[in-house]
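Page 47, continued from p. 46.
Same chain as before, 190 aa.
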Amino acid sequence: IPVRLMDLTEEDMELIKDLCLLTAKPVIYAANISEKEIGQPESSEVLSVKKYASDHNATTIVLCAKIEEEIASLDKDEKAMFQEEMGIEESGLDKLVKACYELLGLISYLTAGEKETRAWTITKGTKAPQAAGKIHTDFEKGFIRAEVVDWQTLLECGSYNAAKEKGKVRSEGKDYVIKDGDVVLFRFNV
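Result:
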């Protein structure tokens, strides 16, 4: 019986934590389908994989490895056209990344400046000071506040300053829990 299926208490899990048991790790099953199956109702094989995964406390993604290989060789514009022609909303790689983030309880927030925009990965439920600490420990130590705007709102406004002028940028304190897709400017003093 895989450890992830055992009914263990938090105390039991703490005892076996240092063993790094492989069967305690979360699992994602990938159901590889043929090109002909894209956009079709799920086959009995795919449904079997999904049922097995569900019965074993795991996640499933469905993808076509042949198509993924083709998508990987295309540039951004060609990729979008190809996916549209094939009726694929998102690539299998994108599905896998999302499933991994969900399974591991991770989210991303962004920082944007004149030189670069960067995504930072944190655990769901992380408060603003600790998220700032992912960038630099001084940011966490001297945290004053976080100026936050949702990435979609930022795109709609066109720039951080435009979003701020429209009142879309919020000032958040130490108890603010960072949300997936937040664009954050940290104010700190060290």
